[in-house]
Write a structure and sequence with these properties.
heterodimer; A: alpha+beta; Sodium/glucose cotransporter; 17 strands; B: mainly alpha; two-stranded antiparallel sheet; elongated
């Protein structure tokens, strides 16, 4: 006997070691980064923790006693699997986002991180699960003794002597607790996945499935001849029992569909709501995509594990003749048939089922206990350095406590119920979470009051109608309570509450508990309002599939006193250890605005606070984490205070809300209304002061000297404020703004110690201020917008600063535009002045031209024997050409042609001087050379001063002698065309240009003219006339043309020359003046 | 045949289809339907109710499997769309 016991014990121990090894291996793989757990098949198998020893042994028991309705417990989860794609995925997503550690944490966080709700859920789970754990211990120890053969009658259900049971069941309990501690409470971070544990659970799921299939095949095809054989025989031998097991007909009344539905409903809820199911499904889920596979694989698992339950049950009844002890048919059938190895496998299967359940359940419950029962007490104390150690040990203690309480429950009332009944008590308890859970996921109004009252009422009804009768059956409570009701009030009989009879225990309890639960949840949720925290959390939970950022509520809170990153690290270290704290913060800091010295931008602070809360929540649960952080903040004198919400109305998205749009609109109206910058600035400041209740608003610009001057100022009560007194303190900020083009602001001058200090500003009563640069992107700062408020701390939120910056940008745009317009106007007036100047010059020119023209002789003198003519055609501008005929006597005429360099009034004046000088010598009998010499001497000083010079040809003709005396001062040589067309010559003498040098001698020559000779005097305009190709008319052109027109009178020769030049240049406009004098000897 | 399958999987991407099957499943598990099969007789050598549940269960698993396939195709195609 003892050898059998010890061999079974030895195999059990070997099996435990094997599981331990698998768990260790999986854990090791995870540590080295090659997880074997993260795959959908393992995930589906781990969900198989649903099938406990209750399934393994109890299903057959229920099948053999009440019949086929046991299947409901597995059909329910199969149906629920339909909803997983949205329901479970949603829960998993939310849980990952909020570092949720258990179902209690989930509900507590959803309903405003309520510690009370967390504690309530934990209590219910803790009490509700005790029978379930007891059931496991009972099943394993009973099966152990069945296998080892201690009871003489293997099919009898016997209470085994306490002297032998205690060590085995207790040892089993302690072993499982130890295992749970090693793989489930190694570290404090409960939101972390336990891969070793899951590997063990998945392996156990495999073992129990194989074991049950082997037993099923053995019974169906070994002991009998297949399914049909079993059913045929059963119908033949016991048709009454057949009818009872394969229909819902009870022996006494109508078909009982209500209990069928109750089972279905309970199991549908249990698959998601039992703490261990929530744990493996949600907390241990490594990838959302695994859910899709689990949706069909898990029902397949359930199907397979239940396929042979009915044949085994019927086989057992046929073999043993009754259904007593049917709970252990799985074990006893092979055992009694002599197949010990199959019986041993069945034992291991049952053991696996129990072990997996106890481990996961105890870890899940101990996490809940730690976070929702112990933690609220601990966090009210000051954090100490040994807190992490205390916390992890409390968690380990929780595991042991859960397992041991289950053990004591089993010791006390374990034998009075069958396995299925004990399991259903737990299912009913878990069902109480359903309304709050579903409502929490899909109904925004669902609130804390509703959840707490609903769960509490449901729980109380459960306690009264289900747990109480179970105690009463074990003899703890007098039977009279059940049969007569408390104090003899039959209406309050726990099993027939308010006179509701005719229902089975479960349906009755479910009906009343759900009625109270759901109605209280709904009524309280509708009647009572949510507080802000609840609304916030509800939004986060329900909006999780809303997708994009813009729909999220932004944080409307700020920390009244800034906290450094380091302070948060120290806080976290106290609960999760320093290494972990630093690690998680380093992860958080990546890609955020946190500088090396640990200072954080003010807008990041609420985020950082939330992150700290979330990290702590991963270890101590949401409600406790919130309490811890709030305690910490109040200790350092900071608190979360609501941001003064400028944009109080409903936000459509972050930056486009009604107020901001209104202000933007008004601002753009102000800016476009006028071009007067002072009015724009004043109006804009007035708008800001009025809309946002600033006390002082200024625009300050840096002047050329580098000091600041106020461009505009507006305020509520300007007189009362002694401006320069306090304002000078802010100048360093202005420099800062000019330098980095960023808005600088202080949200609470009383708490934040600005550098430099703003004592006088504070003394004036200001509590917040901001300096915003006015500039256009990519351009230097034009001015600074400074805003001060005496009444509102925390005014400057991220959105508000953005709005102000954008207004400042608009203002900068306006200023730039005004400046541009001013610059354009200046340019235009300069242009006008220039035009005027040009016009004046043109007028000058015209006058000069008039003067010049007037100097030229109106007509040629009439001298016998010669035909003389002269003309000047000027170009567009003033020319310096000059010719004159000076009649010395009847017979003598002086002909002069000159060209003054330059085309200005100055040249014209010089010309007039020349003319005066020449005329004054009218009757002197000087020769041409002396005339030029005198002229040169007289003009030299003037010409040098005016930087001008003159070319001149001077000729004196005596018609009596026909002699022409001439001298040249650098002028073009006149042409002499003799009557004979082939004879022509240039008249040339030595002589320097006038005005170059004083006392120049001019050569004088003479030539005898005869009848028909033609003299042509000209200026350089003639020879230098160019055609469009750039060729000049040239002296050769003059010769050629002169030959052709010797027969014409002098005037016509001149005409023909002009015509020829126009023809040559192809234009009516001359490039230069052309003066021509023609003398024809008759 | 293939086209039919594609069409079916396409329909199954609809959320409504899920809900309909879920509700249908619950209806099949309650009074009127159960009453039809609530007879102590053997069909093909198996108890009628046992046969009903077993067959129904297999069918429901197949339906979920198809759903999953449909959904996987859908997420794949959206992945591809995203890539493009």
């Amino acid at each position: 006997m003892n050898s059998v016991v010890s061999s079974v014990a030895a195999i059990s121990i070997i099996y435990i070691v094997l599981i331990f090894f698998i768990a260790w291996y999986a854990h090791h793989r995870k540590e080295t980064g090659r997880s074997i757990i993260s795959n959908p098949i393992i995930y589906s198998l781990s969900l198989g923790v649903y099938c406990t020893s209750w399934t393994f042994f109890g299903s057959v028991g229920k099948a053999a006693t009440t019949g086929i309705d046991f299947l409901m417990i597995y059909l329910g989860p199969s149906l629920t699997a339909f909803s997983w794609l949205f329901l479970l995925r949603r829960i998993v997503k939310i849980s990952k986002e909020h570092n949720i550690t258990s179902i209690a944490d989930f509900l507590s966080q959803r309903y405003g991180k309520s510690p009370w709700l967390g504690a309530l859920v934990t209590t219910i789970a803790f009490l509700g699960i005790m029978p379930y754990i007891a059931l496991q211990l009972k099943a394993v120890s009973t099966s152990f003794f069945l296998l080892s053969g201690v009871p003489q009658d293997p099919t009898a259900f016997v209470k085994i002597g306490s002297t032998t049971t205690i060590p085995i069941a207790l040892m089993l309990a302690l072993t499982l607790a130890l295992f749970s501690i090693i793989f489930g409470a190694r570290r404090l971070v409960s939101s972390e996945r336990h891969e070793g544990l899951i590997a063990a659970v998945a392996f156990e799921s495999m073992v129990k499935l194989v074991a049950l299939l082997v037993v099923g095949l053995f019974v169906t095809y070994g002991l009998f001849d297949g399914f049909t054989d079993i059913f045929d025989r059963f119908l033949a031998t016991n048709p009454e029992k057949f009818s009872q097991l394969f229909t819902f007909n009870t022996s006494k009344s109508d078909p009982n569909y209500i209990s069928t539905f109750t089972l279905l409903f309970l199991s549908m809820g249990a698959i998601m709501l039992l703490p261990r199911q929530f744990h493996v499904m949600v907390i241990e889920n490594s990838d959302e995509r695994h859910i899709a596979t689990a949706m069909w694989l898990f029902p397949v698992y359930l199907f397979l594990i239940n396929l042979f339950v009915m044949p085994i049950a019927i086989g057992g009844i046929l073999t043993t003749g009754s259904s007593s002890g049917a709970d252990y048919f799985v074990l006893s059938l092979p055992q009694s048939a002599g197949y010990r190895s199959i019986a041993l496998l069945a034992f291991l299967g049952g053991f696996s089922a129990a072990a997996g359940m106890v481990m996961v359940e105890s870890i899940a419950i101990s996490t809940m206990l730690l976070n929702h029962i112990f933690m609220p007490i601990i966090v009210s104390c000051t954090p100490r350095s040994w807190f992490p150690t205390l916390l992890i040990n409390l968690k380990r203690f929780g595991i042991v406590l859960v397992v041991l309480l289950g053990y004591f429950y089993y010791q006390m009332i374990g034998d009075s119920y069958t396995l299925v009944n004990m399991g259903l008590i737990s299912f009913s308890a878990a069902a109480q979470f359903m309304p709050a859970m579903l409502g929490g996921l899909y109904w925004k109004r669902g609130n804390k009051a509703g959840a707490i009252s609903g769960i509490l009422l449901g729980f109380m009804v459960w306690l009264y109608t289900l747990l109480l009768p179970s105690f009463s059956k074990s003899g703890w409570i007098p039977d009279t309570l059940l049969s007569n009701g408390p104090f003899g009030i039959t209406l309050l009989k726990p099993t027939e509450l308010f006179g509701l009879t005719g229902m089975d225990l479960w349906s009755h309890s479910l009906f009343w508990s759900m009625l109270f639960n759901i109605s209280s949840y709904i009524i309280c949720s509708i009647l009572l309002n949510q507080n802000e925290q609840e609304r916030d959390q509800a939004h986060k939970f329900i909006g999780v599939f809303g997708g994009d950022e813009s729909h999220r509520r932004t944080e409307r809170k700020r920390l009244s006193k800034p906290v450094t990153t380091e302070q948060f690290v120290i806080l976290m270290s106290k609960f999760i250890g320093e290494t972990e704290a630093r690690q998680s913060l380093a992860q958080y800091a990546r890609g955020r605005e946190i500088s090396g010295d640990g200072s954080v931008s003010e807008f990041e602070l609420p985020d950082l606070k939330r992150f700290t809360e979330k990290t702590l929540a991963g270890s101590v649960g949401g409600a406790a984490a919130r309490t811890i952080v709030n305690h910490f903040l109040s200790d350092i004198g900071s608190s979360m205070e609501p941001v003064y919400d400028i944009f109080s109305s409903v936000r459509t998205n972050l930056d486009q809300n009604r107020e901001s749009l209104f202000v933007r609109l008004r601002a753009s109206e102000i800016i476009t209304r006028t071009l007067d910058l002072h009015i724009i600035m004043d109006d804009l400041l007035r708008l800001l002061v009025k809309e946002f209740r600033f006390d002082i608003a200024l625009i300050i610009a840096k002047n050329e000297a580098g000091s600041f001057s106020v461009s505009s100022i507006q305020g509520e009560d300007l007189q009362a404020t002694n401006m320069p007194h306090w304002y000078l303190e802010n100048v360093p900020f202005l420099h800062l703004v000019y330098r980095d083009k960023k808005a600088h602001f202080i949200n609470d001058l009383r708490h934040e110690h600005a550098v430099p200090t703003l004592d006088r500003t504070v003394a004036e009563g200001f509590i917040s201020c901001a300096h915003i640069p006015i500039y256009r992107e990519g351009e230097p700062v034009i001015a600074v917008l400074s805003l001060f408020s005496k009444s509102i701390a925390g005014l400057f939120t991220k959105e508000f600063i953005e709005l102000l910056s954008s207004l400042a940008g608009q203002l900068a745009q306006a200023i730039t535009i005004v400046h541009e317009i001013e610059a354009k106007q200046l340019e235009r007036s300069q242009k006008e002045a220039a035009l005027l100047q040009t016009a004046r010059i043109t007028r000058d020119m015209e006058i000069a031209q008039q003067i010049q023209k007037s100097f030229l002789p109106d007509s040629a003198p009439i001298i016998a024997g010669i035909d003389i003519a002269g003309r000047c055609i000027s170009a567009a501008h003033v020319g310096g050409d000059y010719y004159d005929f000076l009649l010395r006597s009847d017979r003598v005429v002086d002909i002069v042609i000159a060209d003054v360099s330059g085309h200005s009034v100055g040249a014209a004046l010089v010309m007039s001087e020349v003319r005066t000088l020449l005329r004054s010598e009218a009757n002197s009998g000087r020769t041409p050379s002396t005339v030029l010499e005198t002229l040169n001497d007289q003009l030299h000083d003037d010409l040098t001063r005016a930087e001008l010079f003159i070319t001149m040809f001077y000729a004196k003709y005596n018609s009596d002698t026909g002699i022409l005396n001439y001298s040249n001062a650098g002028h073009n040589h006149p042409l002499l065309q003799r009557r004979d067309a082939s004879l022509s010559m240039e008249l040339d003498t030595e002589g320097l240009i006038l005005g170059v040098k004083k006392s120049v001698l001019f050569e004088e020559r003479s030539v005898k003219l005869t009848n028909g000779d033609i003299l042509l005097f000209y200026t350089d305009g003639l020879t230098e006339a160019c055609n469009s190709e750039g060729t000049m008319f040239d002296i050769s052109g003059v010769y050629d043309h002169l030959k052709t027109c010797t027969h014409l009178p002098a005037t016509e020769i001149i005409d023909s020359f002009y015509a020829k030049v126009h023809e040559f240049t192809g234009s009516q406009n001359l490039q230069d003046d052309i003066s021509l004098v023609v003398v024809k000897i008759l | 045949m293939r086209r039919l399958l594609i069409q079916i999987t396409h329909r199954m991407q609809l959320r409504e289809s899920w809900l309909i099957f879920f509700i249908l499943g619950i209806i099949m598990m309650t009074f009127p339907f159960l009453h039809i099969f609530n007879k102590p007789v053997l069909l093909f050598g198996l108890p009628l109710l046992f046969l009903y549940f077993t067959a129904g269960w297999i069918i429901s698993i197949i339906v979920i499997y198809l759903f999953m396939l449909a959904n996987r195709n859908e997420s794949k195609s959206t992945d591809e769309k995203n890539k493009i």
